[in-house]
Design the sequence.
């Protein structure tokens, strides 16, 4: 068997080992982990990452020997996997998959060619559902920002609005800013989308970071707009109208607003100055 076939056989064996180890992990993530964290975007993370890795295949060069960094990352992934499985720690179990992917590719590739996979491998972080404590600690301040921002905007347009904690009272209708309306899910989903969007932009790394980080305030702004629109509909046509079809439809409105804002910002940031 020649050297090239040996590499291919080893790649196949590694792939089989990963599928065997993590098939149960991804099953648990799909039926519980991603669902409990409202991580609907996570289903697309691995396919996108693998596609980006495949698109870079011509630039990848096989390493001739092991390296310390790849070995350490791989061993850390194995240890994290064993610990998480024994203790049923789903966050760490998903993270162990990311670590092992990093370790395997670092071991199999030269240092220079590995750099081509930095983004596709880093993108895998978006499939890790954060622990409930982290979600709770972020959800409350986001709810507060959304409720205060919505109250300020509605007051600006002279609407009869009052704020009691995270309850907006518009006219005689009360709107409770629930956890699902905090904007956390929108922020994470838009960050995952924005990361790929920014990756394909033909501009400097600094500008890419500016656009990517701007996703957070854009998502917050879009969520406030959604709540204000819901409050306006409740005031004009009643809370039942606002909480029915529109409540579901407004999620698409929020997403569209955020995407348009992101595209508009990209146009401004990446615009070439005329000399």
Sequence:
């Amino acid at each position: 068997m020649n050297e090239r076939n040996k590499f291919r056989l080893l790649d196949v064996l590694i792939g089989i080992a990963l599928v065997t180890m993590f098939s149960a992990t991804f099953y648990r993530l799909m039926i519980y982990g991603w669902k409990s964290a409202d991580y609907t975007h996570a289903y697309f993370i691995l396919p996108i990452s693998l596609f980006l890795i495949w698109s870079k295949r011509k630039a990848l060069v096989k390493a001739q020997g092991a390296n310390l960094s790849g070995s350490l990352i791989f061993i850390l992934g194995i240890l994290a996997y064993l610990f998480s499985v024994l203790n049923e720690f789903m966050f760490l179990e998903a993270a162990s998959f990311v670590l092992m992917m990093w370790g395997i590719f670092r071991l199999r590739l030269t240092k220079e060619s590995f750099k081509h996979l930095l983004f596709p491998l880093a993108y895998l972080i978006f499939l890790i559902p954060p622990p409930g404590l982290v979600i709770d600690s972020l959800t409350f301040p986001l709810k507060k920002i959304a409720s205060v921002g919505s109250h300020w905007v509605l007051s600006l347009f002279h609407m009869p609005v009052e704020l009691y904690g995270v309850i907006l009272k518009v006219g005689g209708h009360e709107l409770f800013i629930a956890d699902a309306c905090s904007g956390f899910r929108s922020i994470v989903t838009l960050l995952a989308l924005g990361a790929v969007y920014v990756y394909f932009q033909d501009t400097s790394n600094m500008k890419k970071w500016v656009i990517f980080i701007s996703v957070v305030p854009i998502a917050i702004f879009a969520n406030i707009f959604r709540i204000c629109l819901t409050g306006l509909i409740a005031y004009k046509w009643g809370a039942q109208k606002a909480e029915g079809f529109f409540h579901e439809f407004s999620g698409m409105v929020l997403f569209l607003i955020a995407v348009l804002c992101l595209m508009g910002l990209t146009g401004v940031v990446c615009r070439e100055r005329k000399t």
The two ends are 61 Å apart (CA to CA). The longest strand covers residues 161-164. Residues 3-129 form one domain.
